[in-house]
From TrEMBL:
Organism phylogeny: Bacteria, Pseudomonadati, Verrucomicrobiota, Opitutia, Opitutales
Transmembrane segments: 7-26
SUPFAM superfamilies the UniProt entry points to: TPR-like (SSF48452)
Protein name from the UniProt record: Tetratricopeptide repeat protein
Keywords: Membrane, Repeat, TPR repeat, Transmembrane, Transmembrane helix
Record-linked InterPro entries: CellSynth/LPSAsmb/PSIAsmb, TPR-like_helical_dom_sf, TPR_rpt
TPR repeat segments: 289-322, 391-424
Source organism of the structure: Synoicihabitans lomoniglobus
Gene3D superfamilies: Tetratricopeptide repeat domain
PANTHER family: LIPOPOLYSACCHARIDE ASSEMBLY PROTEIN B, TPR REPEAT-CONTAINING PROTEIN PA4667
Length: 476
């Protein structure tokens, strides 16, 4: 028989267990009731894939359960946000912020949607709340500062950028933000100091366009020309990395969005993430030609040629009329030394897409390399006929004709090329050299001036043209 102390202990332990279980049940039922009260209705899913529809339905059911209500709502928020159901995502984030008021992800993601809708004021409030909850999360600070600047609050934006630098002293995006504010205020010395630091930190990945404009304003034409000559302008501001938004891509079923975001990641120097997102795009849409082709191109850049070959080959199977698939497959085979296979692929491509100007241009190059000039000229002309606004075929045909001492025909082709690309460096160089050779000083001076004004021309090439001019005509 058990002693009375043991029985009392068992009764106490059992009572505590019942109390704990009762407390857990009470807490869970309270959360379940909260989620049920704020749970957004499932939107129309007519355009959603079967897998996405199934996941949303399952998450919605979990959000109404006793044991997984909050987890179900959190999953719904990700699925809605990642797949463009923004109104439902906003309602989900609002509910999550009420239930988990100390989780910074909810106001951050909420704000990102509102900012995209142009609702700056509530987005600013939400990012301020995010920073209170997660002061070390730099992307929220940058997004707040950028939105303040966009909202014509330069002083508040400058304060936010400086606060970011207090957390991350070498953050190039924050420094660039200060540079933009200084530039607009015509504080040229401060703008220059900030921009020179940005380009030093990023090797001109950020700040390229603005520092060229600044140097031109300051009369530093040589510096501006040197920068223009080293690379082409990006033409776009690159967003900083944002892991809390990047996490959403694991729940994205839109191959177009996955490919678009992958392209941004690749340009920002994160090929690993870009590859993962493109692989997901293919997984959710196995017949998506664009994702296959984009991934193949990226893998070539990463020197993963075996996978790239397989993907290019898959492109030709998914759409035999997609000429670029044949062209890239043949080109990569040739690059790897598989000339016979490359020729076979090119022939198959021309059979599948006989009106492809790009494939005819590729064929012309191969024929010219094989010293079959007559056949190459015919292929160049076919490429021009099929796509008359593409300058490359004109220029390459002109070079082939010059080699055949048919300069008059070549010059006519170069003039046509310049109609479609007036700043083409190869065409400008040819016209300058030919004007010098012909002894036409006036024309040579005009073409040389165009060469010198074109930053895409290599400095060594421009020097050779100037030297030829000096030999023919003397000092300028």
């Amino acid at each position: 028989m058990k002693s009375k102390p043991v029985i009392r202990l068992l009764i106490v332990v059992g009572g505590l267990g019942l109390a704990a279980g009762g407390w857990w049940w009470y807490q869970a039922s309270q959360q379940q009731a909260q989620v049920a009260a704020w749970l957004p209705a499932v939107p129309a899913l007519a355009d959603a894939s079967d897998e996405l529809s199934a996941r949303i339905t399952a998450a919605d059911e979990r959000a109404l359960s006793l044991t997984n209500a909050v987890a179900g709502l959190a999953e719904l928020s990700r699925l809605y946000h990642a797949n463009g159901y923004y109104d439902s995502a906003l309602a989900s984030y609002d509910a999550l912020a009420r239930i988990q008021p100390t989780e910074a992800r909810w106001p951050h993601r909420h704000a990102s949607i509102l900012a995209g809708y142009g609702q700056a004021e509530p987005a600013i409030v939400l990012w301020q709340r995010t920073i209170e909850l997660a002061p070390a999360y730099v992307p929220a600070r940058l997004r707040l500062a950028d939105l303040l600047l966009k909202s014509n609050q330069p002083q508040a934006a400058a304060d936010a950028y400086r606060a970011t630098l207090d957390v991350d002293r070498d953050n190039a995006w924050a420094i660039l933000g200060l540079a933009r504010i200084d530039y607009e205020a015509e504080r040229w010395a401060d703008a220059r100091r900030h921009l020179e630091r940005v380009v030093a930190l990023t090797n001109y990945a950020l700040g390229y366009d603005l520092i060229v404009s600044l140097y031109e304003r300051l009369g530093l034409e040589d510096r501006a020309a040197a920068i223009r000559g080293r690379a082409e302008a990006s033409g776009a501001f690159r967003d900083p990395p944002d892991p809390w938004l990047d996490e959403l891509m694991a729940d994205c079923y839109d191959p177009f969005r996955l490919a678009l975001e992958a392209g941004t990641k690749a340009r920002s120097g994160d090929p690993t993430t870009a590859i993962a997102w493109l692989e997901r795009a293919i997984a959710v849409a196995p017949a998506d030609l664009s994702a296959h082709f984009q991934l193949a191109n990226l893998l070539v850049q990463q020197r993963d040629t075996s996978r790239a070959l397989a993907l290019y080959r898959r492109c030709t199977q998914l759409d035999p009329a997609f000429a670029d698939g044949w062209a890239q497959l043949s080109g990569l085979q040739a690059q790897l030394g598989n000339d016979v296979e490359a020729e076979r692929t090119l022939a198959a491509g021309l059979e599948a897409v006989p009106d492809s100007p790009g494939l005819h241009l590729m064929r012309a190059r191969k024929l010219r390399a094989a010293d079959r000039v007559g056949a190459a000229i015919a292929e160049y002309r076919t490429s021009i006929r099929l796509r008359p606004n593409e300058p490359r075929a004109y220029i390459e045909l002109a070079v082939a004709l010059i080699d055949q001492n048919r300069s008059d025909e070549a010059i006519a082709l170069i003039r046509e090329a310049l109609v479609y690309d007036p700043a083409n460096p190869t065409a400008l160089g040819i016209m300058a050299f030919k004007s010098i050779e012909s002894g036409d000083r006036t024309a040579a001076e005009e073409w040389l001036a165009k060469v010198e004004a074109q930053p895409r021309i290599e400095p060594a090439q421009a020097d050779r043209i100037r030297a030829a001019f000096a030999r023919q005509f003397g000092a300028r």
